[in-house]
């Protein structure tokens, strides 16, 4: 697989495929490479060796199990190398602004000309066509223009973005599934194809029931904080020491919750007798529940609800998340070698999908810039002398 993407969504997509066994060749500009190599956070320098200036935790999050080549796509020799790689690849993934790949002489028609079965997977801010196709797109921009920020945050507060690049990663997830589907289609038809997606379209898609309410009823959405527009109670409640998320998605669960809270009669209150009534009287119910939840610490409520069948969970700090017994049991933190790190290794987030037979694996840490350039070019049949000439010409 040939991977010509930077930042988050493309690399996240191809990392998933790499975890599943794909041989991913990451094409980067020889000078600087992927932008995320430089996205270090405060204090991060203690992790890396003094001469390791071209890597970061951010880059290491989404680029494991890949090989990196440094290649200048604007040079004719660089273009020829891409075409030769395309001949030997199943998939090309790119996230240029629509049309840019064509200007480089590497559009779909050209790639298909050298490999009729190639699958070109393109990612952009707004999609390959339409009036906004040429606009650059980034995670929070897609979340804003696609409506997600309009519905995220507290009811009386400003719009709030999720704590991670959610639209980038959701788009990468969509695309990785589409690539697999295109490969399956090619198995049946023998024909490759171009597929494209965007941050904007992903955001519209995950508006889900909120978006459906608008397109069918013209119902404008609002921000609910951690609450749910159609299920009550279903939100975070402040305890004596932190927060606990509790839900009751049906009358049986609500009755059970009331019993666990020591107020059986609450389930028979006409204001809360069913979900419709609870939704209409959510403020009254929230006030009553808040007064109860704040009387105990979160751990005490967890013990009280254990085995009750009530949906509940604490809002954990990252310290608690990564020491969580379930995270440990499911191998959600693993260690890989990383030469750029002071310890010679780093810890990475595990693979969230488990297979009984064809097991994914984290085989290699993220590559240094151009680490595999010579290796890949030799696989294409280039001699050491030819590679040396490319280096002198600043093609690689």
Strand order of the largest sheet: 3-2-1-4-5-6
CATH superfamily of the largest domain: Crotonobetainyl-coa:carnitine coa-transferase, domain 1
The major β-sheet equals: 6 strands, parallel
> What is the number of E strands?
11
Number of domains: 2
Distance between the termini: 19 Å
Class by alpha and beta content: alpha/beta
Helix content range: 25-40%
Mean pLDDT: 95
Find the CATH topology of the largest domain. Answer: Rossmann fold
Q: Count helical runs.
A: 17
Strand content: 5-15%
- Oligomeric nature of the chains: single chain
Task: Quickly give the CATH architecture of the largest domain.
Answer: 3-Layer(aba) Sandwich
- Report the principal-axis shape: elongated
- Helix and strand succession? EHEHEHEHHEHHEHHEEHHHHEHHEEHH
Give the low-pLDDT segments: none
Supply Rg: 25 Å
InterPro entries: CoA-transferase_III_domain, CoA-Trfase_fam_III, CoA-Trfase_III_dom3_sf, CoA-Trfase_III_dom_1_sf
Protein name: CaiB/baiF CoA-transferase family protein C7orf10
Organism: Talaromyces islandicus (Penicillium islandicum)
Pfam families: CoA_transf_3
Question: What features would you highlight for this structure?
Answer:
2 domains; Rossmann fold; 6-stranded parallel beta sheet; 3-stranded antiparallel beta sheet; 396 residues
Structure write-up:
GO terms for molecular function: succinate-hydroxymethylglutarate CoA-transferase activity. With 396 residues, the chain is α/β, with parallel strands linked by helices. It has two domains: 2-206 and 330-393, Rossmann fold; 243-314, formyl-coa transferase, domain 3. The protein is 37% helix and 13% strand. It has a six-stranded parallel β-sheet, sandwiched between helices. Strands 7-8-9 form a three-stranded antiparallel β-sheet, with helices on one face. The mean pLDDT is 95.
